[in-house]
Design brief:
Shape: globular
Number of strands: 13
Mean pLDDT: 78
CATH superfamily of the largest domain: Acetylglutamate kinase-like
Organism: Diversispora eburnea
Strand content: 15-25%
Helix content: 25-40%
Largest sheet: 6 strands, parallel
CATH topology of the largest domain: Carbamate kinase
CATH class of the largest domain: Alpha Beta
CATH architecture of the largest domain: 3-Layer(aba) Sandwich
Strand order of the largest sheet: 3-4-2-1-5-8
InterPro entries: AceGlu_kinase-like_sf, Asp/Glu/Uridylate_kinase, G5K_ProB, Glu/AcGlu_kinase, Glu_5kinase, Glu_5kinase/COase_Synthase, Glutamate_5-kinase_CS, PUA
Keywords: Amino-acid biosynthesis, ATP-binding, Cytoplasm, Kinase, Nucleotide-binding, Proline biosynthesis, Transferase
Protein name: 9767_t:CDS:1
GO molecular function, one term: glutamate 5-kinase activity
Order of helices and strands: EHHEHEHHEHEEEHEHEHEEEHHE
Number of domains: 2
Number of helices: 11
């Protein structure tokens, strides 16, 4: 969504987790691995000096009180293991319609953040007649209340599309939006959210419109890839060539990372660990009559590898068909599958 330069190295970040991010759709059971990764990510951001607010889904309707209680207990258990205090804040539209209550809520957020507490916000779903309707809108309003620098809307697709990519193969990704109003003629947003949630892409666009109007950079992103980028420790580095950079950073159809595009490997890691992906860009610099080549190291992103550092060192530069010949087995045709790639590099090669 709308981009801006960070106001400072230390930012206020609001992260909205949808129901599909924290609950298994078929069983309604909590996804403990996702919750744990999010908690670790928040702790990492706090360690860097950032202030973090979570807007999290609870349960819907009559089960809201029970659902929120269980969810907060899990959050408390996870955060307490890392000595991070949290506070639950339940909001309704009525709380914000009244000016006095709105200012009280703003002051509460300010005091909690100043104390190093992570506020966990949810709508009071049991009070149906004064609901926001979805946590996307709630997250945008919360972001405005805390004067956030960034709002992350976690979803189950990797970015905004012109239509639902699951049902329309011709749907095109929209990486950056400068004018949300202009999207009305570009994007079909009739698709609903998950079975468990109350929101969909349309609610995320409304939330993004609210937040960006307040000067808040808003990012709609796949929760898994966000965790790969910010929640996982990198165990090594993979250097790739220019062709691989072009392939894995394509706007329309990103490719997996194959061994053929890998130049070298640093570090010791095993399969399924996170690694940083980098590219050495050669820049020519002239000094009077002398022309020198300068190497600039560019971070392309992060990913979860299918092979260990030892295995990748043996198969780097090789075709996928040759992996089994070299290793004696081939667990995967690619080193990092595109679903496990989180790209940060904007391709302008």
């Amino acid at each position: 969504m709308s981009q801006k330069n960070p106001r400072s190295q230390r930012s206020t970040i609001v992260i909205k987790l949808g129901t599909s991010s924290i609950c298994e759709e078929e069983t309604n059971l909590p996804l403990l691995s996702n919750l744990s990764l999010m908690v670790e990510t928040v702790i990492k951001l706090r360690g860097l000096g950032h202030r973090v607010v979570l807007v999290t889904s609870g349960a819907i309707g009559a089960l809201a009180a029970v659902g929120q209680g269980r969810l907060m207990r899990m959050y408390d258990d996870l955060f307490s293991q890392l000595n991070q205090p949290i506070a639950q804040i339940l909001l309704t539209r009525h709380d914000l319609a009244d000016r006095t209550q709105y200012l009280n809520a703003v002051n509460t957020f300010s005091e909690l953040l100043a104390m190093g507490v992570v506020p966990i916000v949810n709508e009071n779903d049991t009070v149906s007649e004064i609901k926001f309707g979805d946590n996307d809108t709630l997250s945008a309003i919360t972001a405005k209340m805390v004067n956030a620098d960034y709002l992350f809307l976690m979803t189950d697709v990797d970015c905004l599309y012109t239509d639902n990519p699951r049902t329309n193969p011709n749907a095109k990704p929209i990486e950056v939006v400068e004018d949300i109003g202009a999207l009305k003629n570009q994007v079909i947003v009739s698709s609903p959210g998950s079975l468990l949630g109350t929101g969909g892409m349309v609610t995320k666009l409304i939330a993004a419109d609210l937040a960006t109007a307040a000067g808040i950079t808003t990012i709609i992103c796949l929760d898994r890839k966000w965790w790969i980028l910010h929640g996982l420790h990198t165990a090594g580095i993979i250097y790739i060539d220019e062709g691989a950079v072009r392939a894995i950073t394509k706007v329309r159809q990103k490719s997996s990372l194959f061994a053929a595009g890998i130049i070298k490997v640093e570090g010791n890691f095993v399969a399924q660990q996170a690694v940083e992906i980098v590219f050495e860009k050669i820049k020519k610099e002239s000094d009077n009559d002398n022309i020198e080549n300068r190497v600039e190291l560019i971070s392309v992103g992060k990913g979860l590898v299918n092979y260990s550092s030892t295995e990748i060192s043996r198969i780097k530069g090789c075709k996928s068909l040759d992996i089994e010949k070299i290793l004696g087995y081939a667990d995967s045709e690619c080193v990092i599958h595109r679903d496990n790639l989180a790209i940060t590099f904007e391709n302008n090669l």
